[in-house]
């Protein structure tokens, strides 16, 4: 089968379009024909070898955590799905390939495109996990740094749907997008704390940092403490007494959340902007764009 493979850690240039053997499903696994794979910042961080504590990588490796596709074969003990089923979920063998193995999956609603289905697993699980850690509830105010990014925008939508008031930091070019999602946008830069206070005169109750731009001290100042600040992007979190969240959701909860987010997306109640779709052979170009941080939405690979 065709796949993107890297044999050493490094920049986008280590990615090569290759042919590898088709994986065989083990107990509890399904094999899927990948129709679309999501590109995430964590993909290039794993490629550099920076995330081994969270995502141990054996080389050679196929990148990619999330996919949407069609079940092609099932392993021993799998009874919840069968060949021909359209699903989305998390792969254990790498999603930048014609075929991949997976365990945590949910049914893809018929009205949801392959690209939009593939955009949901990582962003949905991450946003839901952090909102749960922060214990945000109806009537509270949440500050989201990096609110126009993929994870940030999903968090905004889930929080707004739960009755939470959301203030989101973003460049001015994305303010209209945030307003459409139900958030009050504020711009980055000097004077940010004052702009947040003006947008939320009664204060903020929790902070989600999806930007990693050195905003933790300001967030702690606004809250009066670090207890309800969580970052998914600042590796210096511990220096500030802030929780860095990089995974750990129980598998059953992952599957339940995935099914719910897919339902919401199919009903038009949860949206992820698709910035660009790349053929499999152009995976390195997708990584270059992801690493540059300028993509306005989700990057997708179509094998």
Give a quick set of tags describing it:
25% strand; alpha/beta; six-stranded parallel beta sheet; six-stranded mixed beta sheet; 303 residues; Rossmann fold; Quinone Oxidoreductase, Chain A, domain 1
Question: What can be said about this structure in brief?
Answer:
It is built from 9 helices and 14 strands. The protein is an alpha/beta fold and 303 residues long. The chain has 2 domains: 2-119 and 272-302, Quinone Oxidoreductase, Chain A, domain 1, CATH 3.90.180.10; 123-244, Rossmann fold.
The biggest beta sheet reads: 6 strands, mixed
The end-to-end span amounts to 10 Å
Order of helices and strands: EEEHEEEHHEHEHEHEHEEHEHE
**Mind telling me which CATH architecture of the largest domain this is?**
Alpha-Beta Complex
Q: Tell me how many strands there are.
A: 14
- CATH fold description of the largest domain: Quinone Oxidoreductase, Chain A, domain 1
Query: Spans of 5+ residues with little confidence (pLDDT < 50)?
Result: none
**Class inferred from helices and paired strands:** alpha/beta
